[in-house]
Structures are given as C-alpha cells and as structure tokens.
Amino acid sequence: MKPASEQTDDRFSPRALERDDAALLKACRKGDETAWDDLVDRYQRLVFAIPRRAGLPESEAADILQEVFLTLFQKLDEIEQPEKVRSWLVTTAKFKTWGVVRSEKGLRAPATEEEMEHEMASLEDENPLIEDALVTMEQQHLVRTALKKLEERCQQILSMIYLTEPSASYAEVADAIGVGATSISPLRARCLKKLEKILAG
Amino acid sequence: MSESRDKNIERIIRLMQTDDSADAPSEAVKWSKNIFRTRQKQPSALQKIKAVLKLDIAPGQAVFGERSGAAEARQMLFEAGEFGIDLRVSASEHGFEVRGQVLGEGFENREAILGQHATQTNDLGEFVFEAVEAGTYAFSVGNGEEEIVIEGIEIS
C-alpha cells in the first residue's frame, strides 16, 4: 500500500507549497537557521498529530516529534526529493509511532517500513493510523499552510468562520475587520477561491 | 462556478471545520528548532558575490532611455562583480510577480531562490517568481562556483 502522502489526490496538487518545502529544505542544507525554524513551525502540528491520533499521550507524542525532527536533521543531505519532505515526515512519524504502539504491547518495533506497512494493513479495522485518516490529516495540513499564504484579512475571515468553535457570525466578523456585515459573504467566497487556487498549485 | 469546484470548496471548508489538530508543546518545538544550532558550519569553496543596487525605478516613472511610456513594474538593477541582475516587481492577483534576468553568462538553467520561493533560470538566465507576498527577501542564484546574493529586497 502506498503511504498516504504519495496517494494521488485529484483535487489538491499543491505544487507551489511543495516548491516552498523544497526551498526551505535546500536553505537548511546551506545552514539557514531561519529556514529550519520555518520548517519546524510548518510541520510541528502535522507530525505531533500522528502519534496523538494513534492514542499516545501528549508527552510521548512530543518525544516522537523531537525524534522525527532529529532524524530529519541527521538526514538533511540524504533526502533525494526535497519537495517530498512532507511525505518523508509523515512516513517517519508513522513509523516511529507504530514502533511505540507495538513496544507498549510488548512486541519489538518493526525493522523495516515494509514490515510496518504489512502489520498495519493486517490490523486495519483497529488501526488508528489507517491511510484515510492520514490522508485527511495531510490535507488539513495543506489547508492550514495555504491559509497562511492568504492576506491577513482573508485569514481572519476564514479563521473566524471555519476554525473557531463556535463559529463567528457574519456580524462579528464584520466588526472585527471593520466592514459592513453585507460585505462578509462575498469576501468569504473570494477568500475561499483564493485558498482553492493556492491548493491547486 | 462549476459543480466540481463547488464540491472542492465544500471539501476545503469541511477540512477546516473538522481540523482538531493542536500545536505541539512549545518546549518540544523549541527543542526541535535548537537541534539545528548544533550543526557545524562547513567551510565553503563557493564564492559569494554580494550584489549592490545601482538603479531603482518605481512603477509609473518613465524608464531612463525610453522615449515614451512608463514602467508598470518596479525595476531594479543590481551589480554583482562582472554580473548584473535585472529585477522587475509587479502586483499580481496573488501578491507580486518578481521577474528578472541574470546579466552575464554562467547562470543559465540554475536554481534561483527568493526567500522561500524557488525557481529555475531558463536558457537566457531569466527567472520568474509568482505569488510572492509583500515582505523583505534575500535573493540568490548559484552555479556551483559562484553565488550572487542580493539581501534586503523590499517587495511591497
């Protein structure tokens, strides 16, 4: 089975975001500390979400996050496709998570990625890291990353309407950004189109 | 808007609404960032050439040497040793478009970097970065032996 990050998705083809990733990784190879910070900031949430989704407590998930970035740091110059660093991070986080889950069951960690994939496939019904869940998590990561590419006003509008719980009303959004409430619906639609365009690469 | 586009937008909305992920603990993030500070800086044989701004023409001003018409893009000319970099910045639907050309041989079909954006120069040393956000950027283009660097390019 292909890793989630390598499965074809006919709706998102975020080439622009992947080019950003590649540029960040290449800058890291040249010793750019800011690029490394940006890479960690960009991916910490996705990497942390994988062990959390598998049911590991926050402290163990944080350990896995650190291990994943340590491994990335050690292999910075070995990653052949810098634009695929997202796939690399997801696979590495999944591998390390599955190793912890297995050891907690008193089993040894899988020796290879193939072994891990085989085991996970055989447990699919009770597997918290099934491909569908990982695909959704990656897509949510892409939407979050694309959202940060929008101008501040669009970020604010979409965040208030779709990312807060409970969702803000149009009147509240209008108050926050200083426009009339009737402007929010067309602004929201325009911002969503821009978001879609970024995600289409 | 087509039905498939509507569905795509609905899907993006659903992904936002169901995103229950949380930031990792700040200490773990800080630790992960600090790993990089242990990296040994490698001495490099690459010769860096810092470019100096020689000409900066704001949009709407007539371009020197042109009889008519005003530039729609901000035009900047940098000098970097025996090389030059021509940069043109114009507003686009998604921020700014930054076009340019390396004047001088040896930087054809090479990677050019502007902040987090990366692209390739063509056979003429031309390059374009699209959807660049306003901000201050460093630009670089290298050919394995020399690297031209422009620091502090303000795009606004």
Architecture overview:
The complex is a heterodimer of chains A (201) and B (156). Chain A is mainly alpha-helical and 201 residues long. Chain A has 2 domains: 10-149, Rna Polymerase Sigma Factor, Chain: A (Orthogonal Bundle), CATH 1.10.1740; 151-201, Orthogonal Bundle (Arc Repressor Mutant, subunit A), CATH 1.10.10. Chain A is built from 9 helices and no strands. Chain A has helices at residues 15-29, 33-53, 58-74, 85-104, 113-122, 131-147, 152-163, 170-177, 184-199. In chain A, α2 packs antiparallel against α6. The longest helix of chain A has 21 residues, at 33-53. Chain A is globular and about 60 Å long. Chain B has 156 residues and is α+β, with helices and mostly antiparallel strands. Chain B folds into 2 domains: 3-38, no CATH class; 47-155, no CATH class. Chain B contains 2 helices and 10 strands. Chain B has helices spanning 3-17, 26-35; strands spanning 47-50, 52-57, 74-80, 83-92, 95-103, 111-114, 117-120, 126-132, 135-142, 146-155. In chain B, the strands form 2 sheets. In chain B, strands 1-10-9-6-7 form a 5-stranded mixed sheet, with no helix packed on it. The two termini of chain B are 32 Å apart. At the A-B interface, α1, α2, α3, α6 and α7 of A face α1, α2 and β7 of B.
- The SS-based structural class of chain A is mainly alpha
Secondary structure tally, helices of chain A: 9
What number of domains of chain B? 2
Coarse morphology of chain B:
extended
Mean pLDDT of chain A: 85
**Physical arrangement of strands within the biggest beta sheet of chain B:** 1-10-9-6-7
Element pattern of chain A in H and E: HHHHHHHHH
List segments of chain A where confidence is low: pLDDT < 50 over at least 5 consecutive residues. Answer: 1-10
CATH superfamily of the largest domain in chain A: RNA polymerase sigma factor, region 2, helix turn helix motif
What is the percent of helical residues of chain B? 10-25%
The overall pLDDT of chain B, averaged over residues, is: 85
The CA-CA distance between the termini of chain B, in Å, is: 32 Å
Rg of chain A over CA atoms, rounded to whole Å, is 19 Å
Record field, number of beta strands of chain A: 0
The CATH class label of the largest domain in chain A is Mainly Alpha
Shape field of chain A: globular
| Overall number of domains of chain A | 2
Task: Report the span from N to C terminus of chain A.
Answer: 26 Å
Major beta sheet summary of chain B? 5 strands, mixed
Total number of helices of chain B: 2
Strand count of chain B: 10
